[in-house]
Amino acid sequence: MTQIQESVEVAVPVRAAYDQWTQFADFPRFMDGVERVDQIDATHTHWVTNIAGVTREFDAEITEQIPDNRIAWRSRTGPDQGGVVTFHQLDDARTKVMLQLDHDPEGIVETVGEKLGFVTRKARGDLDRFKTFIENRDGNTTGSWRGEV
Is 148 helix (H, G, I), strand (E, B) or coil? Predict the structure, then answer.
């Protein structure tokens, strides 16, 4: 099992960062290789990914969810992986988003890719794209991320 830890600071309040991260259908907008995430019910999602030309589908279960604080998950089918994202308020308008991902590479291609740092770079890129995505968002149904209603 390989563990990856990455973080990013975003210029939005903790509530906005957490709320956006829990909008799983938006993941393809900032996660490279994620084609679709379907929310089955409150704790189950179905993922379709295409990474390096390999399409995979798997189911995941949310194992812990504390609003504005953390969300943890574990795959139930497909690749063995799990993780947790935590949200840390830096001030009223900035949040640190921390990702811890545990995964078990499958096959020779993924093992080699892991040794070359592919998954770590992908996680870093996804967090950077999340930062760009959420900071450039015009707002949501309750107003903009910058606290305006």
Answer: coil
